[in-house]
Write a structure and sequence with these properties.
The chain contains five helices and 28 strands. It has 368 residues and is mainly beta. Belongs to the strictosidine synthase family.
């Protein structure tokens, strides 16, 4: 028998068999997403659109800000804060006439991975550090851990934060099971490990306001302080917890069927919330949500899964969650935050090495 004839067949069959064995033995075992949680509608569309948000944009701090996941603006000093992969919270003094000449300063290193940032009432910066917990950083740069657990469960991925006028700090723990480095597995898992919480600086009490959330992410308080919004990334929606009135303590959906996966959400002081979309809505993800074995395959080939994260952007809604505008670009991905300062849109990213600035007057979203 000429065994050489079998070599091409063996070259094909052996990897397939090994792949099947690895697939069966791998401990990652995704669950079906609850059918009642999955959207059956098409993504919502906005009346105005800018499909080329990178066109005409400027880059700030190239090579100095790696993974500027969130952006905080201090209106009193005009300084921008951002948290980076290397643990530094950096201060950026933007050069209005030339963004490339903006000054980047290493301010405080938390020793972890700073994600969400919020301004406190006394000049302090509140940090949601994925690896450490909820932090308070004084104006002098002193770092204090406010809380790192709730109801006996340690935070695994402290994600975003917002401070209300009464001083209460609202924040999310995206997952109590998966850390930041395994965050993609949390989304692929199909189980709800996220929590939405509050911290009272006066009593130092941490309270769980909502649990069993699917990758709890961005947080924003309404301008009238009547509700607070938090996002669920894989389900493409943001929920609303009422803080006042007859519905106090109840939760409903603020906006759903977003055209991408939401990350941070920021209020602009002008009646709009700006929701960062890390990636757009894709057919592959819609199918993967329905079939756990597809998500297991994606988990085994995480590099490939990350390659599918593209066409990120920003979705703008009004105070009732109604769509207003959509900014995106096929060249963008992992857009993690968007904040409007005067006539400029500033965007941060999970992995990029710059902050994007777009002149909204010169590059507006137009009727689509």
């Amino acid at each position: 028998m000429n065994y050489r004839l079998l070599l091409p067949f063996a070259a094909f069959l052996v990897p397939v068999i090994l792949g099947i064995i690895i697939f069966q033995l791998d401990s990652f075992d995704p669950a079906p997403y609850p059918a009642d949680q999955l959207s059956r509608k098409k993504p919502v569309s906005a009346p105005s659109r800018n499909r080329r948000m990178f066109h005409g944009s400027e880059k700030i701090g190239v090579g100095r800000v790696w993974g500027p996941e969130d952006i905080l603006y201090d209106p009193e000093t005009g300084v921008i804060y951002t948290g980076c992969m290397d643990g530094w919270v950096k201060r950026v003094t933007v050069n209005e006439s030339s963004a490339a000449d903006s000054v980047v300063e290493d301010w405080v290193n938390t020793g972890g991975r700073p994600l969400g940032l919020a301004l406190g009432h006394h000049g302090e910066v509140i940090v949601a550090d994925a690896e450490i917990g909820l932090l308070n950083v004084t104006g002098e740069g002193k770092v204090e851990v406010l809380t790192d657990e709730a109801d006996g469960v340690k935070f695994k991925l402290t994600d975003d934060v917002a401070v209300a006028e009464d001083g209460i700090i609202y924040f999310t723990d995206a997952s109590w099971k998966y850390s930041l480095k395994d965050s993609a597995l949390d989304i692929l898992d199909g189980r709800a490990y996220g929590r939405f919480l509050s911290y009272d600086p006066n009593t130092k009490h941490t309270r769980v306001l909502a649990k069993d959330l699917f990758f709890a992410n961005g947080v924003a308080v309404s301008p009238d302080q009547s509700f607070v919004i938090f996002c669920e990334t894989p389900l493409r929606r943001c929920k609303r917890l009422y803080l006042k009135g007859e519905r106090k303590g109840t939760v409903d959906v603020f906006v759903e069927d977003l055209p991408g996966m939401p990350d941070n959400i920021r209020y602009d002081g002008e009646g709009h919330f700006w929701i960062a979309l890390v990636t757009d809505f894709t057919l592959s993800w819609e199918l993967a949500q329905k079939y756990p074995y597809l998500r297991k395959l994606m988990g085994l080939t995480e590099w490939y899964a990350r390659r599918q994260l593209k066409d990120g952007g920003v979705f703008v809604v009004d105070l009732e969650g109604n769509p207003v505008a959509h900014y995106n670009d096929r060249h963008s991905s992992l857009v993690s935050t968007a904040i409007k300062i005067d006539n400029y849109l500033y965007c941060g990213f999970v992995t990029s090495n710059f902050i994007l600035r777009l002149n909204l007057t010169q590059n507006p979203a137009v009727s689509s």
